[in-house]
């Protein structure tokens, strides 16, 4: 159980660091690069709108990956959440700016932020399942825990 707690801690630390870096980039860099036709204030607010897309996708990711956790166990969910978070972060770095891609650039940035948000919620759904000693086929009790995780994700939209 200690290895699982350590793995969850490392995964959560990586994901929170990713959100912190994206939030900092949204405040400083993404506005002028992806919204150059807006005023500086509106461009920064629009960049934070792409950041908000990640938070709005949390309940969807929690429900979707909670179901996967119910069906297959928490290990695939935690692995998929870390993989999806990393891929979404790389995708943001690879999106061309507004000058190259036009209006599709902010849309791609929002889509990758949404996938990052659903991946963040997936790790919460994966952590809230029953212990790995109980195989999912033997009646694991993840259903309620996954629903609680989805409710926590939905309530976090109000609180921060």
Q: What's the helical proportion of residues?
A: over 70%
Question: What is the succession of H and E elements?
Answer: HHHHHHH
Number of strands: 0
Number of domains: 1
Report the major sheet: none
User: Quaternary arrangement of the chains shown?
Assistant: single chain
Structural class by secondary-structure content: mainly alpha
Q: What is the general shape?
A: elongated
Enumerate how many helices there are, as a single number.
Answer: 7
Strand content: under 5%
Terminal CA distance reads 30 Å
Radius of gyration: 17 Å
Uncertain stretches: none
Overall pLDDT score: 78
What does this structure look like?
- The protein is mainly alpha-helical.
- It has one domain.
- It is 82% helix and 0% strand.
- Helix 6 packs across helix 7.
- It starts with a helix and ends with a helix.
Give the SSE map:
Layout: H1 2-34, H2 40-56, H3 58-72, H4 74-94, H5 98-101, H6 104-127, H7 142-159
Question: Brief description of this entry?
Answer:
The chain has 160 residues and is mainly α. It has 7 helices and no strands.
Keywords:
single chain, elongated, 7 helices, mainly alpha, 82% helix, 160 residues
């Amino acid at each position: 159980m200690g290895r699982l707690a350590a793995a969850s801690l490392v995964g959560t630390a990586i994901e929170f660091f990713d959100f912190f870096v994206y939030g900092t980039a949204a405040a400083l860099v993404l506005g002028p690069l992806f919204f150059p036709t807006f005023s500086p204030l509106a461009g920064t607010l629009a960049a934070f709108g792409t950041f908000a897309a990640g938070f709005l996708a949390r309940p969807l990711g929690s429900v979707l990956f909670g179901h996967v956790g119910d069906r297959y166990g928490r290990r695939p969910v935690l692995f998929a959440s870390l993989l999806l978070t990393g891929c979404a972060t790389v995708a943001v770095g690879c999106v061309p700016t507004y000058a190259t891609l036009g209006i599709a650039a902010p849309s791609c940035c929002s889509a990758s932020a949404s996938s990052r948000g659903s991946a963040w919620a997936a790790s919460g759904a994966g952590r809230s399942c029953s212990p790995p000693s109980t195989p999912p086929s033997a009646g694991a009790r993840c259903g309620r825990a996954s629903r609680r995780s989805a409710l926590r994700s939905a309530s976090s939209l109000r609180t921060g």
